[in-house]
User: Fold this.
Amino acid sequence: MRIVVDLSRCQGYAQCAFLAPDTFRMHGEEALMYNPGPDDAERDRVLRAAAACPVQAILVEWEGRHTPAEASP
Assistant:
């Protein structure tokens, strides 16, 4: 699993940081820091976080293909 966040779309709502704190965290009030290659143990949390993003800025990639946040691999 690989994560890509479109930081130009991210508005700092921090839903991802709340739902998957081991993968996403806020640095200050607006800057998002994230782990682009989280462990598979974080899969469910990351998918929930991506689905909860109000601006859909989080893209989850599985083995070279992009998957919408709501779908499973």
